[in-house]
Amino acid sequence: MAALSWIAELLQYKRDGDDFCIREPRRGATGRLFGGLIAAQSLAVAGATVDDGKLPQSLHAYFVRGGSYDADVEFHVDRTRDGRAFATRHVTASQDGKVILEMMASFHQPEPGLDWSPDAPPVLEFDAAAPKHDIMDFGDKFDLRTMPSDDSEFAISPFWIRTQAEIEDDPLIRACTLTFLSDLGPVPSALPPTVALRSDLGFAASLDHSIWFHRPFSPHGWHRYELQSANHNDSRGLARGSLYDAAGTLIASVTQEALWRI
C-alpha cells in the first residue's frame, strides 16, 4: 500500500459507530493544539458518516477551549439530517472529558447550475512574493510566499501557499487540507490595519471559524490567500478571507473571529 500523506495520517481514527478517537501527534510539552488541525479532523469524522457522493459544502466551528498534543481526542457525530441533496452533521470534539470544539458541517451532492465568481486581481502578485520559512503551526508542510517585508512567525496575508507533498485525490481529504491551512492566517488579520503585529502584543486565540467550499481544491497547486480585517471591538476581531487558485478562481471563502487581549 502507498504511504499516506501527512494530512491523511493526521486524519486516521478509531471508530465505534458515530464515535471516533484520534491520537494527536507529539509536538512537545508546550503549545496549544492547532485549531486548523482539530477542525480538519472534525470535518473528516463528519464526512465518514455521510453517503458517498456528498461533498463538504460549509462548516461552522467554535473553539471552546484549547487542546493538547500527544493525547486522545474523542469525537461524537450527531446525524442532524440526511436529505437527497444535503446532509448536516454536528460534531463535538472532547479531550479529557472536556469539550474543545463544536462544529456544524453541511455536505452537498454536486448538481448542475450557474458557475460565477467576481474577478479579483491579486493584492500580492506571485512574482513579487518572497519565500518564507519557519512559520508556526505545521508551517513545514507548506511552501509559502509572502510580502518581502513579512518577518513575523505568522503567515501574514496576503500570501501564496501550496502543500510540499502531493495529497490523495480524495475530495474529503482535500477539503480537510483546505480547512487545515485556512487557519494559518486569520488571527493576525483580525487586528485593525493600524495596529502593528508584534510578538509581545498580547494574548490571541481563535474563537470561531467558518468555511464555504465553492470549488474543488488542488492542494499541491499554488493558491493565494487574502484576508482583511472587517471589525474589531470588545477584544474581538473579525477577519474575512478568500482562497483563489493560480488562475484567479475563487475556491473557498473564510471568516474567523479572534480574541485579542492587548
What does this structure look like?
The protein is mainly beta and 262 residues long. The protein has a single domain (6-261), classed as Porin (Beta Barrel), CATH 2.40.160. Helix content is 13%, strand content 40%. The protein contains four helices and 13 strands. Strands 1-2-4-5-6-3-10-13-12-11-9-8-7 form a 13-stranded antiparallel sheet. Helix 2 packs antiparallel against helix 3 (171-181). The relative contact order is 0.16. The model has no long low-confidence stretch (mean pLDDT 94).
What's the CATH H-level homologous superfamily? Acyl-CoA thioesterase, double hotdog domain
Give the helix proportion (percent range): 10-25%
Portion in beta strands: 35-45%
The total count of strands amounts to 13
| Biggest sheet, spatial arrangement of strands | 1-2-4-5-6-3-10-13-12-11-9-8-7
Rg value: 18 Å
Give the low-pLDDT segments.
none
| Architecture per CATH nomenclature, i.e. the level-2 architecture | Beta Barrel
Overall tally of structural domains: 1
The biggest beta sheet is recorded as:
13 strands, antiparallel
* CATH topological fold name: Porin
Coarse structural class: mainly beta
Assign the CATH class. Answer: Mainly Beta
Mean pLDDT: 94
Number of distinct helices: 4
List SSEs in N-to-C order.
Answer: HEEHEEEEEEEHHEEEE
End-to-end CA span: 50 Å
Shape: globular
